[in-house]
Design goal:
Layout (H helix, E strand, L loop, with lengths): L2 E5 L5 E6 L9 E5 L2 E5 L2 H18 L9 E9 L7 H8 L11 H12 L10 E10 L4 E8 L18
Parallel strand pairs: 5-6
Antiparallel strand pairs: 1-2, 2-7, 3-4, 5-7
Helix pairs in contact: 1-3
């Protein structure tokens, strides 16, 4: 897996993690010294680690975004090599949809968790999400983050424009 990072001139933050998308898997239960523990599967831990690395590259010295945020997430899966040419072409032009596992919301969960404390303070700030799952030549997860225009956080303590005549 390789990682690509870009930052636009606007307030948008764009993170691209190339390689096959990985879903956030449920914690697994194991035992250490006879005591049960819950652990995150290795594939999820690795993908989230790579995504955090890309997020840090993109953010540089910039502080995590505050306030309400919008996300646009594009999840691109490779076309199975076993598919015939006609089906491959249909998948690449969007006629054949990616209706198999993993679920888009589980990939989104891994992506959002990876950005906590780096791109934003906490993923509870995300108030709007558009997620698309599709086939493509280059598998990747692309995350575009932007402040939600005209929205204030629930923690606001004074009315906007208070005292204006």
């Amino acid at each position: 897996m390789t990682a690509e990072a870009t930052r636009t001139d606007s307030q948008d933050v764009i993170i691209e993690i190339t390689g096959k998308p990985v879903a956030k898997l449920r914690g697994r239960v194991g035992q250490v010294n006879g005591r049960p523990i819950v652990f995150t599967p290795a594939s999820t831990r690795k993908w989230e680690r790579d995504a955090r690395m890309v997020a840090r590259q993109v953010m540089g010295q910039r502080k995590p975004l505050a306030g309400p945020l919008q996300l646009a997430v594009d999840i691109v899966f490779p076309v199975p090599a076993s598919w015939p040419a006609w089906k491959r072409e249909a998948a690449l032009d969007g006629t054949v949809a990616h209706t198999t596992k993993p679920d888009a919301d589980n990939v989104l969960k891994a992506a959002k968790d990876s950005c906590n404390g780096i791109v934003w303070l906490d993923d509870c700030q995300v108030v709007e999400t558009v997620t698309r799952k599709r086939y493509g030549d280059v598998p990747a997860v692309r995350i575009r983050v932007r402040p939600a225009p005209g929205m204030l956080p629930a923690q606001v303590s004074t009315r906007p424009n208070a005292g204006a005549a």
